[in-house]
């Protein structure tokens, strides 16, 4: 009852945040353990950090309302990959996880404004670490 009274004044969640939440639910169903969401450092932000078996997985989530112009995963270009590599290395250092296996996944979400549920595509091991920070095994 209280929620229905408050709902009209509640700010709607952004498309990006809804996409990250949907991606986290999707990955949990696959057996991933989510250990961090929206992890920020001075270098930027990692959308999701998860564990799949014995591998630390850095997940970049891209959410769009349509894929008419380009697929959401196309936004993870070489520049973004280099940035994610630096962010991942920083995360592994901060948490003393440099000896762990790590990889990068991309979750592409298409969520039209009229749809209640998104279309989710998961790309495990989407790219190799790039730049000078290739410390992954």
TrEMBL record:
Task: Enumerate the InterPro entries for this protein.
Answer: Restrct_endonuc-II-like (IPR011335), tRNA_endonuc-like_dom_sf (IPR011856), UPF0102_YraN-like (IPR003509)
Record Pfam families:
UPF0102
One GO molecular function term?
nucleic acid binding
CDD domains, alphabetically? Answer: PoNe_Nuclease (cd20736)
Gene3D superfamilies linked: 3.40.1350.10
Instruction: List each coiled-coil range.
Output: none
Q: Which residues cross the membrane?
A: none
Which HAMAP family does this UniProt record tie to the protein?
Answer: UPF0102
Which family is it part of? Answer: Belongs to the UPF0102 family.
Q: What is this protein called?
A: UPF0102 protein LOC68_04290
Q: What organism does the UniProt record list as the source?
A: Blastopirellula sediminis
